[in-house]
Amino acid sequence: MPSVAVKLYSVFFKFLLKHRLQNRIQSPPEDSDPFGVTTRPDESVAAANPSFSDGVATKDIHIDPLTSLSVRIFLPGSALEPSSKLNRSPTHSEPPPPPASLRRYSHGSVLSQREEESRRNSFGGDAEGSNSPAAGYRGYSPMAGDGRRKKLPVVLQFHGGGWVSGANHSVANDCFCRRIAKLCDAVVVAVGYRLAPENRYPAAFEDGLKVLNWLAKQANLAECSKSLGGKKLEGQHKHIVDSFGASMVEPWLAAHGNPSRLPKFVLHPINCFCPVLHPTSTSRSATRVPISFCGGKEDKCVLLGVSCGANIANYVARKAVEAGNLLDPVKVVAQVLMYPFFIGSVPTRSEIKLANSYFYDKAMCMLAWKLFLPEEEFSLDHPAANPLVPGHGPPLKQMPPTLTVVAEHDWMRDRAIAYSEELRKVNVDAPVYEYKDAVHEFATLDILLKSPQAQLYALFSKLSSHVDLLYSHIHRVHTLIFLCVS
Length: 486
Description:
Carboxylest/Gibb_receptor; 34% helix; AB_hydrolase_3
């Protein structure tokens, strides 16, 4: 069973969330703003930190001028390791590197010309940081045409929050993506989609698909930049610019992104999602890469959705199947659905038994769906809510391999398992990992317990346990005195 601290925080969490949802439902409807919002004023957010202070650098990019859609890129420090150290073994046929001239600074340190050039960004300007993970990473941009950098797989991540809250740069999601980036040695692109009710369905789903198209565009631009040769022209590197002279190539993805590789959680997912809990049962072995994950020369993309973000990931995967070659060179080869936000008109066993479960119970999820779906389209069998309804999107046999992660005390678990079973019936690799004694949002639960509110309730639970212990001792003493006196 979950700990006392988890139970107390769940009560506090549900009280606040229910109050917010009811207030939004009762408030008069406002005119829809296409620009939208991607976070709430009361959300605890983590600022972008490019310093590799904990082994991961982050930066935010606003990719759509017409909406508030943005992404946060998580780059692990391992990306700064030379690729020759990890991916190539030295051979006698390789020519020795040219001798590099040294440059001595007034404080006594010596830098080679190669190191000095690596401190410059792709536009020829000097960055104020260095490439060391322990040093500052301010304004760093890899040099054009530098093939010495380590290439990492790319993961497209969608956060949770019940459609109306959460953010790609929230404290919980920031720590979760940092963990994925470090443990899986991958570049994580977290999507900041528009929230409801300011922007109802299909705004969040369209934002997810728009970011996938943006990744495809970045892959094409990176290839075009390579064709320029990375040579210097009048002291500047050649690069593709827009009409305002700004570079259109995202340098982190161009230098370090390698979608042809697969992240570790596709290969060995057991220890990636939660450092404390481990799955106790699976519907199918997933300790090796399924055959359908391998092969092909396309730029592979893996989708990772958490809670309602899993619904977005599943939608993006369906649209990617429908798009076919239109997304070339990017191809969605796998998706990971973590405790997806699925629901339906016919309740499952877990929906009946665990309707009043921890954090997101069924009553609050109904409120969230009412705020997300347009009133004229509201239905629990909406394609955004129930993936098992036939006639929506491409056939299931065309879906990419799907890894589903569920929690034992989550009322939505049975429908997620049923969706995975339907995929396996049509020969789609769809393993299921179930975590025992886990609740909805368990992957970020250790992060939630670091927030001030959660720490307060954790402290309260500890104090209450000490008070109960003290009370029992006092009761025993009183009983002993009573027996002695009598």
